[in-house]
């Protein structure tokens, strides 16, 4: 089998092609909430024409050169044949759709190549800011082709945590006020890239996410000397039968033990996108 890194040029091409399509729809500083191009996949879960076009561009490029690989994407109906593949593409064609709709340049194209549960090659691109992040297992992480690494902050009270705009709006970060600096940033994929580059010290979410949200970012952080686990400290394995993750914690590595202690007794939030349980008929 080919070395994973041989796929990186095609991954970059796919990310840039998707980014160009996305930017054709992006309106900086303009709220496009009322646009007729926005569809709904569920409560508070929008999808746009840009998501769909980007997904098709990435899939066409990657699968043309690797027809025997599996495929898992937010914008493609899941094919469980991927579970029998040694290598799988895990893709979010536009992570941060809400920010994209609001005209906020905090979104990213996220592409990861996963081998036997581990990300081995990653490409994450924010076309609005011209930021291209890449990582190869065992060979480090880069931003615009320059090496990057996580921060070396060692105390939580001095740390900067990247927080979700929607989670902040729902009050989910209020219990952590005053413990560290909170900085609202869209897209968990983009948060992980920023963390890998040392622009912040950690991020976490207690709201369920999916593998495609974090697969590329996980390798970026790990190869930049940081850590990504669930909130109990368990390493995340990808290409699972259900791509749903209950919680994600990512840090510069230095802060990970303190964060695990802090979050150990904090409950995860319910899955807001899950189908409601069936009602029991009464007679």
Provide an overview of this structure:
This protein is α+β, with helices and mostly antiparallel strands. It has 2 domains: 4-148, 2-Layer Sandwich (Fructose-1,6-Bisphosphatase, Chain A, domain 1); 156-263, D-Maltodextrin-Binding Protein, domain 2. The protein is built from 7 helices and 16 strands. The strands form 4 sheets. The chain has a 7-stranded mixed sheet with strand order 3-4-5-6-7-8-9, with helices on both faces. Strands 11-10-12-16-14 form a 5-stranded mixed sheet, with helices on both faces. A hairpin with a 4-residue loop joins strand 7 (131-136) and strand 8 (141-143). Helix 5 packs parallel to helix 6. The N and C termini lie far apart (61 Å).
CATH topology of the largest domain: Fructose-1,6-Bisphosphatase, Chain A, domain 1
User: Helical region count?
Assistant: 7
Number of strands: 16
Low-confidence stretches: 277-283
User: If strands are numbered along the chain, what order do they take across the biggest sheet?
Assistant: 3-4-5-6-7-8-9
Helix and strand content put the structural class at alpha+beta
> What is the gyration radius calculated from CA atoms?
18 Å
**Beta strand %:** 25-35%
CATH architecture of the largest domain: 2-Layer Sandwich
Number of domains as seen in the coordinates: 2
Cα separation of the termini: 61 Å
Amount of helix: 25-40%
Overall pLDDT = 93
Major sheet: 7 strands, mixed
Give the topology string: H per helix, E per strand.
HEEHEEHEEEEEEHEHEEHEEEH
